[in-house]
Each structure stands twice: as C-alpha cells, then as structure tokens.
Amino acid sequence: MYIVNCNQNHQRKFKLLNMKKRLNYLINQWAIVFLFCIFATIGYGQKTISGVLTDASASPLIGATIMVPGTSTGTITDVDGSFSLTVPDDATELKVSYTGYESMMLDITNQREFSSISLSESSALLDEVVVVGYGRQKKSVVTGAISKVDVQQLATRGVGELQSGMQGKVAGIDITPTSGAPGSGFKVKIRGTGSNGPTEPLYVVDGMRTRDIRFIEGVNIASIEVLKDAASASIYGAEAANGVILITTKNGSGNKGISYNGSQGIQSYRGGMELMNTEQFGSYLTAAGVSDDITAGLDTDTNTDWLDEMFTTAPTSRHNISFSGGDDNTSVYIGAGYFDQAGIVGGADVSNFRRLSANVGVNSKVSDRIEIGLNATYANENEIGSGFGDTGVGGLIAAGIIMDPSVPKIYTGALPAHVTGLDTGGVQLASDDDGNVYGLSNGVTDGEVINPFIYLDAINGDGQSVNRLFGSVNAKINLLDNLDFTTRIGTDLGFGTFHNWSPSYYANPTRNASVASSVFNSVNSVGVQWENFLTYGLALSQSIDLDLLAGTSAFSSNVSGHNANASGLISEIQEVSYIDGSEADSQIRAFNSRQTLQSYFGRANLTISDKYLFMASLRRDGTSLFQEGNRWRTYPGVSVGWILSREGFFGSGGVLNFAKLRASWGQAGSLSSVSPGAGLASLNFFNQYSGQIAADPSSLANPDLTWETSEQTNVGLDLGFFNDKINFSVDWFNKLTRDLITGGSSPNFIGNNAPLINAGVMQNRGLEFELGYRNSDNALKYQIAANVTTLNNEVLELTEGTIIQGTNSDVGVDWNPSTFEAGFPAWYYRGYQTDGLNPDGTANIVDVSGDGEITPDDFTYIGDPHANLIYGATVRLEYKGFDFTVFGQGVAGNEIIMGFNRTDRLGNKPTVFLEDDFFAPAISGEVYSSDFMVFDGSFFRFKQIQLGYDAGNLINKVDNLRLYVSLEDYFTITKYPGLDPEIGSDFDAAIGIDRGIYPVPGRIMVGASLDF
Amino acid sequence: MKIYTKIIALAICMVLGIVACQDYLDVPVNGVIVQDSYYEADKDVNAAILTAYDILTWNNVWDWGAPVFIKTLPSDEGTCGGSSPSDQAGYNTLDDYTYDSTNDKVSAFWNLNYFGVHRCNTVLDFVTPDTDFKARAIGEAHGLRAYYYLELVSHFGDVPLLTTTAITPEEYNQPRAASSDIYAQIESDLAAAIAALPEKSGYADSDKFRISKGTALGLLAKAQMNQGNYSGALTSVQTIVNSGEYALADDFASIFELDGEFGSGSMLEAVFTSEVGHNWGTNPWDLGLPGSTWESNMHIQLMGPREGVFGDAEDLGVIQGWGFNYPSPKLYDAYIAAGDDVRRLATVVSEEEYLAAGGTFTGDAHDYNGYIRLKYGSKPSESNEISIQQNYGTNWRLLRYADILLVGAEAAARTGDENTSRQYLNMVRTRAGLSDMMASGNDLLEAIINERFLELAFEGFRFQDMVRWGLAGDNFEGFEVGKHELFPIPNDEIARAPAMTQNPGW
C-alpha cells in the first residue's frame, strides 16, 4: 500500500508541476478575455518583483496593494507583508498603496527585490481591520455603521454564552438574558425591536450562518463585528433585517505555543427583594377582605423566607486549553474547552449547564495560488432545568414568591392536621431526602401557589443534551493577479434530546397528578450552506481603486425530530421514564421541516484619492417559504464616505487628526416569523371527535404572503483626536420595517384563523455614540470605552382597528398587557390607568371610555417596555503588571410589569406592598391589571470588575502567567423592587414582563491564564 | 488544459449561478396537508365532517366558554358562582346582567358557531357526492350548518351569512344579513339534510352522534317555532313522532349520565370522553395543539360544588368542583310545587339533602343560595380514575325527544289542537311520574311553559324560551326589555368588519 501510495504521490506531484505551467499560460489566456480585465496587457518579456511592506515600526502591512500603474496587474501583500509580482519587462515603477498610509511609487527599473519598504501613515491610526460581509476592510474606509466588539474579556466570563460578554460593549445593540438560569439564552436586538416577530440578528461564524452561537467558547474568538446599518447588512439580504453579527474564530499563528485559561467562581442571588413575613401577609390578607377561614389557616409561629430557601450558592467553572502553531504556509489552532455552571435555584441536580467543546482552525497555502481553510467546532452541551426560563405564568420562581410564608419548607415534627387530613387521591406527599414532608398551605391553595420544593421535585431526568458540529471548509483560488475565487461549504449540525420526568405529586387541590409522567423529545437539525464568490481588486488610475465582489449562496435547512410524552409510568424511577410504550398513556409526535434559500450577491467599493468612498451592493434572495411569484426579492444597499481629514484644507498637526463623514441607505429582509407552509390553507389532525380523527382547517390561505423588509438610513461621523488617542463616533439611524408579518385580523365570523398577512410599518430611530480613549504613554496605562444609544420605537401603521396582544405575554389568567398597535411602541403595556387612592384604600381606576363603568374598555397605555437609553462603559487600567477592568451596562426609560403579582391569585408579595404611600392592600383584578404594577425598569449593572496581575515568566517554562479575580453582575443600581431588573424572556412579545424571573446571579471569579 | 478550463468555467458558473438548480426552492412542505388536494377518500371526508362536529365540544378554546352554560346563565334556573364575581368574570356578568359587548363568553359563543359554519362550508365546498358516504356527509354538513346558524340567529338576530369558504381578505368586511334570510338558509339546509340523511336507526351504534333525519326535523321544528310558524313546527314534530324512531327513556336521571348516552330519546349530543385519561399537562386546553386528542368535559369539573367549601356527598355520587352554576330556590320550589320528585332528585338538592347524603358545607360560596345541582353533576362515575377532575365524559344533550314533544305541545296549543298538545305534554309528564294535565287555553300554555322549566333545566333553553314568550323581562333580574333579548355583537367583530352594526341597546 505504502509503495503504491508513494508512486501515486510522485506521479501527482509531477502532474502538478506540469499543470502549474499550464495554469499560468491559461490564466494569461483568460486574462485577455475575462470580463473584468479591460485593462489587461501582456508583454513579451516578464520579470518578478518581490518585497516586504511594513509600517514605520517594521510591522508588516497586510493586504496592501501593489499595482503596475495604468494596468490591472497587481497583487496584495500577505500576512507577513510580503508580495511577489510578475510584471512586464518594460515596467519601470509599481504603485504601493495601503489605505490610511501615504502611497508611494517604487522604482523597479533596476531593483527586483525590496527587503523592506516602509510606508508612512497618511493619517494616524484607525488602521484596524474590520470584517465585513464576504471580506475585510480597513476601518478608516468603512462607510457603513459597523461596530467592533472588544473581545478581550470574553474568555473570563462566568457565563456560558458569548452574548453575556458583549452586553454594553457597543452602541446600538441591546442584549438581555432570557433568564439567569444556566444555559438560558439571550435576546439580542440591534437598533431596537425591529419586528413584531423574532428580532434576533443573523450570526455569521467564519462565513457560515447560524441562529445560535451558544457552542462557541469566548477564548476562541478572534473578532466580533456588528453590522448595524442596512447598507452593511444587506449583502446578507434575506435574513439581515435585524442586523448581522460576524464572528471570526481563531486560526492560529506562526508562534508555536500552548495556552491555558481557566476560572472558578461562586454564584449567588444578589437582588434585594423582600417578601412579607407571616404577620405582614396575614394583615395584608385581612386588609384585603379575604375570608377569615383563610387568614385563620395561617400558622403564625412559622415564618419562612421562601427566597432564602430557594436561592443557594452555586459554582461555575471554565477551563480552556489551546494549541497554536504552524509554519510559513500553514497555521493551526486547536482548542478544547470545558464550561460548567450550576444554578442558584435548587443546585446542580436541577439547574445546571455544562459544555464540552473542541475546535480547530486551519489555514494553509497549498500552492502560490490556492489557499484552503477549515474552521470547525464540536460541542456537547447538557442543560438541566431548561424550564426555568420565562415559560409563562406559573413558573418555579413565581411559585416561590407567592408561596404562603406561614408554611415551613419541610415538616420536621408531626404533620399538622390540614396535611394529615388531605385527600391527595392516593398520592404520597413529596418529601426531602430525609423523608421530611414538604410544607403545604392550609388556606392559600390557589393554582400556582406551590411549595417550590415540590416543584423542584418534579424536575428529574437528563435535561436537554445537544451535540453540535459547526464549521466550514473553504478554498481560495487566485485565478488572476487580482482575481480570487472563493468557495466555501459550511454545515451546522445539531442533535439534541430533552428528557424530564416527574413523579406523582400533590401541591394543592388544583396542582397534583396521581401518576408519574415523562417527556422525551429529540431534534436533529442540519443546515448546509454553499457559497462561491469572486473578488477582484482594480486600480482604475493612480488615485482610483475599485473592489468588486460577485457571488452566489445556497442554504438548506432540515429540522426533524419527535416529541413524546407519557403519563402513568410503570414505576416512579428514571430507568422506566424513556417511554417504551408500557405507560398508561403515551403520545408521540414527529416532524420534519425543510427550507431552502438561494441567493446572488454583488458589491462594488470605489475609493477615490483615499478620501471619497463609495459602496453599492445588491443581493437577490429566493426562499422556499413563500409561494411562487412571491419568492424572490432584491435588497440594495449604498453608502458613501468622505474622509475630510485627508483634504488639503484640513491641515495637519491639529488636535483633530481624523474625520470621516458617512451616509448609507439599504434594505434587508426577514423570514424569521415565517415557517414552511405559511400562507397555505392547510389542515391539522390534532383533534379527535367521538374517538375519530378530525381534519381541522388551520387557517385561511394567503398566497400573497411575502418578505418582511427593513429599510434603514444611517448618517455617521467618525473623529480621531490627539493622534487617535481619542476616537469618537456618532451615528443617526432611522429604520423602517415594512410588510410586518402579522397574524392578520379577519373577523371570527369568517370561521377560521386569519392567514399571516403583510401589514404594518414599524420605526426605530436613534442616535449612537461611541467614545474611546487610550493612553499608554506612561507607566499607568489606561483605556476607556463608552457608548450610549438612544432609541425610539413606534408602530407607525397596522391594519386599521387591529390591536395585537402578545403571544405568551399574559400575566395571570385575566391580563395580557403586551400590545401591538399603531401609534404606540411595540408591545407597550395596556391596562387600567389609576389616579390615586380612594379613602377606602382601593385604587381609583380612570374611566377612560367615559361610560361610567370600569371595564376592559378602559384599558389604555400604561407603560413602555423599551429602554430609550442604553449605555455601557469599560475602564481598563494597567500599572506594572497589574490590570484593573470595570465594565458595566445600563438601560434607562423602560418600564417593567411586576407580573408575579397575579390578578387572579391570593399569594404573598414583596413588602413594598405594605409600605406607606405606595399601595393600599386590596385584592382586586383591576388594581393588578393597572399601572400600579408598572415600575421604572432603569438599572445600571457592573457586569465585571476585574483585577489581574501579569506575572510574566515567573514560573519556569511558562512564558506568561496572568492571575485575576473578578466580580461579575455583582452590583446593580436600580429602583425596581423585584428580584432582578434585567427582565428577559424567550417570548418576543413578553418584553419587560416579570412573571418571576430567574435572577441573573452575581459571581465571584478567580482565574488564571498561562502561555507555554 | 481541459481540466483547468473546466475549473475556471465552473468557478465562474458557480458565481454567476448558471449551475443553480431551477427547482432548488421547490421543497416539500412536510407535515402539511393542503385543503385543495385533500377531500377525496371517504375517510378524509369523514375527518372533514367530524371537525365540524368537534366544535360542539370546544368549550375552553376561546377562554372558557361552553354554549350550554352561556345560554343558561341569563336565565332564572341558577346563578354563576365560582370563587368570586371576578372568577370567570365573563360568566358572572352574564348571570348578573352586567355583561357588555366585550364579554369573552359571548365572543366564544359567536366564534364557536361561526367556526362550525366554516367547517360545514368546507365540506360543502370541497366534497363531491360521488359515494353514498360523501352524500351523507354533505347531508350532515347541511344539518350541522343549520344547527350553528340557529344558535346564532336566535341569540344575535341578524348575523353575517356565509355559505362558502372562498373568502379573500377583501371580502372579510361582511354586513349582517336579515334574520329572515338566515332562517331561509336554515330551512333550506334542513330540507337538504332531511332528504340526504338516514333515520337514527339507520346509523350504526358508533355513528349515533351524527345528525339524522330526525335531528334535522327537530331543528326544523325549533326554527319554525322561533319564526312563529306553529303549524309548520307541529307538522315537523308529528313527522318525528310518527317515525317511531324515538321514545322517552324510562329513567330520567340516567339520561344525563354515561349510561344514558344516545338513549332512546337522544336526538343530538356533543360527545366528550372519559377514556383518554387527560391530566393537567395533556388536557387539550387550546385548540389545534399536538396531542389535543378528544376532549373531556371540563365544565362538569367547573360546575361541581365549590372545593374547600363543600365536601363530597357520597350518597349522591357528587364530588367537589370549582363551584359554578348553583340552582336557584325558584327552580327547587317549582319542582316542589309540581310534586315532581323524579326530576327534582335528578336535577337539584337542597343543602339539607346534600348534608344528609354525607356532604359537608363550611363557610360561604359566592352566588350560592342553598341548592346544589345534580343534573350534569360532577360525579366520579362519569370520569376516569387517572384524574377525575380532568376526565368527565358527560355529553351535552343538545336535542332531546322530550324537548321536541314540548315544542310540539306548544305548537299544537297555539294552533288550537289542544288534544295533540296535551298528548305530547302528558307523554313527558308520565315519564316524570306526574299525572296527566287536562288544562286548556292559556292554562295549557302556562303548563307547557312550566313543564319546559322542569324538564329542561340547565340545558340552555330556558333563556331563549322566556325571551320568545315575552316573559324574560318579568322573570330575570336585570333584564332590560328591548336590549337583553339579543346578545351584543362582539366588539372585536365590529372593529374588524366595520360593515357590521351593533344590536339595539348595546
């Protein structure tokens, strides 16, 4: 075998050599005829010029352009700053240019090798390279609104998701955890709530699209860019309406080395909410006029602080190890990671997230013209207690808040009479590991008033397990000197299961189950993307550069799986909870859903005299989700920039060293509220009648259903002061989302659910400011970054007379405050308006309709869930090996509904309900459906306070050692009297609805990083 | 060289999309069956007609809203109950006459009937009668559509008339059709049903839930009665009686229990099940959710004596529920006055009787006036041991022979045929163990009115009857003549279809 292989290799090499020659010839042939090559010429003789390009400090300049003036012959420098270019014999000079630097002419009459060409900066810095759609650009010539996220601290966060570390880092992006439970996700909104449906941005990781980035370890991130304006995002047209986040993972470098990063932390509940004690609860109930039987049932000798009982301290840890290395042609990065976070509710057995991951990044030049790369990550995730997020009313945390404080967690002595006398339908009462029965309320037995430990008892099983394989391979072929062809195939594979079983239980007369039940679900998702594109750089003249991009993309997604549930488990043990069919009742449902997206895209960037910048892009997308005739849509984007500071009149040496004006306009689409079959008059078969299958018409048809489109105008100004020690950017944007896909509003007498329709326009307007200041001139080095965003959201149009109530945003049985209506912010709160208190302590509800009665007709605007100010700041100081970072984030102007105060339940409440001048106790649906439940949601949270010490090569064989300690999410400034002002939800419409949020834990972390 | 030409050509082609598949976007929509290609096989048509029946059991789809309870509440048979006036406020305000055009139960009632109409229209639009089964299904669809429209027209008056599913968004804004047009449609639908459908005896046991010729005739009699066409109503009732298809079941109490399902006097029932074994997690609270399966009758649980206040009365076979729908003293007294023990003991017990049967009562219950309902009672024997609360299988009896006989009695009395009237009336009385009624003239009508009160309590007819007789204003506290005869058109409907108008007084 070996010999055969050897021979084959040998032959192949031989062939390759011949082919290379042929290729050169061929390329020249092609060069004559090729579409873009209007300036191509071929000389009779040729010579090769090579060299290395550096800046003043001898650092290589990557991607600089080397051109034969007046021709299309040219190249760009590689990662080492080196280049090699074959030019006609009679060429006498080369133009060397690099944006942000002074161009120079290189005399090649006699010299062919240039060991070091140094370019001087035309303006000062701002030479940061940013990743843009299908390419890279120097920040100084970017004409859209693109923010680069500071990824420095990502690796040290004690939370498993990247988004946690992105909070407050850039202007215009609002990131909220859906809950503080381990593994729960984040809602990311770029420039406001851009849709009445999902508002998540599109993530593009190393060129491959995805909707979920939980699998990525922060330490593996090379860069994160946020494409905020439509002109930047519209190159990803189809799904870019809510912005695009580009993530680049590490690819390794020439320096061989192994790094370790690890941290350990302790988490705890850091909120200040106090609940009424038994005495207060009793007087509250009495004052509220509740029947004596109930108040008499309170055990005044017992005082349980259910928050104290529920919340515990919990560990979190992270370990990452990576190898980076390579040679001149190949670079490799291999990483492995472990992350484990337990929940502060119930401990690791019932609330935990753990991830094991491995990733690899390889880039190799296999020949002068061919470069191949691979970026792939495998992650194994396990999440227990995934039901702890905002699952609607009746969640665990809410149960703990409203639970009767006169009930002990467990009965240690004899059981009280109301427990021994219970008819539980034969169910054994739940008890702790020592056999102590969990407490049950005597009188407060409304549905969701449940001892949280009985609730926790129901959480058993494997939880959610996900195996994820994400990655892409790409090949870049240099077809002509400036013409590159890239092909990239990416896959996003996810295989998950969810398993939970709960024993028979008795919590109260309405919450109980006489048999054990089980859920076992699986989901397989397969996303495949194939993209091909050509990039071509062209110097039209000495001062005019043109970069062209043209490509295609095809994406297909297939999600399949099953949901199974069973009740009546043969035995109440985990081993029989995987649903083998022996249960009294089991149900299974399977699904298989496909969709495809096909795209063509192109872009031209024109730079004149390094001062005048123009960009135009076009993307045409087709989707399988719509019916023929409505499948295709074209998304344009244009932007212009003017670097004023490069004008002669600007002068040099002033305080202001850089100034650029930008303006852009573009359109992008969204498909996230559309699923396969939307708009079709279809049937479902979930119902039965008289034991036989019934074919329910699921909705009326709308064959005209089409894309939701957002259109955005952006104007920005970038300034650099004191040789770029201070950078300042301001952007104004106006984003209009049209053709919102809404549930339609047919009258019910049509007799069926309305189809999805395109109706409505929403506007998000705002200003973004980013300020950066760095000074590393002295021993004390410091760096300050701050950003501020103002936001104004309004639904401009919606089908007349339509008021959409949010899905899964209800508060109790009788009130769903989240409302979508023209003339108001999206999902504003609608309820009773109050005007002070009556003498009897009840609230005075305003009769808005003026009909003399208080009915839901009087519901009106009572609050705005959107922050109108979002800000963040990072301060970093370094002094002699010590570093100190403070990073915080805040919002202002938003309001929260304290929804765990149920309109329809007796239950405990925060002590603020007893305080003077706040609220006279009264149990009335009107009061709990009113602005009394609306609170100022402003807060500022110190996300991270970190002190680090760089011990250098203190330890033998360790090149670099850094130790740090940090406090995360530890201090919060807020007036909100609930558990946590950072109210998130998985449900898009439930913004700011606090139905008993799992609070974000505070964390004390210690960590170390070592480089070998 | 050839290879490289190909590579570069391919590269360019890929970029320019020449290789892109034309049909890349044509992917199957898995798991979705589109209406246009469905209604072919008999079994598919069966699923289509079953979905039209299924609406009869949609009692907690638009919040809680059971037509039988909604129709009972404004009457003097009983009160709403629950924990407080704000517990199911929509039900409570119907009872208290404080409801308005935003009442969620009124909306649910409206919605249910129109969803039923739409599903019947689906069968009528899509199904071709090329088999006997399909022809029968079309007959059922006509009959059911008449049932739903009869509910609508008698409670809302003029309503939009839709007889096809082919509605585009531009056509959503429908005006109300005159009630005479609705009745004309009902009568024409029933004529089609009567022509197409078998008698009840022509159905297999498993198909007894379907509309039969007799059901259609019964609905026709009621529609005729509502329009004052007494001779027509009498003819319809006589046709039913003469068919010999129906007889009054001997035991009145068991008519409303599992044992009495589809008994000899049953003409239409809404079919619930105790067999599925629902629990809190699997109960089909919302329509169209996976695993919805076949519904149990949650209103039986809702309408059991209030838990925590009442203890189970084992001798009566009744256990606690959520405390809705307590009988009025007036109803109890009416049985006592009539000496009607058979139906009283199957319908209502006093607190003393409840306690004597082993029940307990402590504290107080909202809207409770000393009487507990047994008809449609929360009896464990009607449910499933897996979770009694979740699995009451009690069917709603939507049309009974006794009701039709009393319709016939009234129609006969109003057309002067008092012999026939007394004959029908006394058939009902005999089954209740009462002596024959010999009254005539207005006394006869009064007797029929009282008989309907006793026979049909809590079945959802009293309110409509009293409105029809012009007696509602004198008997129902809070009833405003000229307003409460009809329910308000739901506000949302007018908002979505501005061509609609509101009923007088609302």
Architecture overview:
The complex is a heterodimer of chains A (1012) and B (506). With 1012 residues, chain A is mainly β. Chain A folds into two domains: 19-118, Sandwich (Immunoglobulin-like); 261-593 and 604-629 and 642-669 and 708-1011, Beta Barrel (Maltoporin, Chain A). Chain A has a 22-stranded antiparallel beta barrel. Chain A has a five-stranded mixed β-sheet with strand order 10-15-16-13-14. In chain A, strands 3-2-5-6 form a four-stranded antiparallel β-sheet, with no helix packed on it. In chain A, strand 52 and strand 53 (960-974) form a beta hairpin. The longest helix of chain A has 32 residues, at 2-33. The model of chain A is unreliable at 1-44 (pLDDT under 50). With 506 residues, chain B is mainly alpha-helical. Among the domains of chain B are: 41-197 and 477-506, Serine Threonine Protein Phosphatase 5, Tetratricopeptide repeat (Alpha Horseshoe), CATH 1.25.40.890; 304-377, no CATH class. In chain B, 44% of the residues lie in helices and 4% in strands. Chain B contains 19 helices and seven strands. In chain B, helix 2 (42-54) packs parallel to helix 6 (132-156), helix 6 packs parallel to helix 8 and helix 14 (401-414) packs antiparallel against helix 16. The termini of chain B are far apart. The model of chain B has no long low-confidence stretch (mean pLDDT 92). The chains are: A mainly beta (1012), B mainly alpha (506). At the A-B interface, helix 1, strand 25, strand 26, strand 27 and strand 28 of A face helix 1, strand 1, helix 2, helix 5 and helix 19 of B.
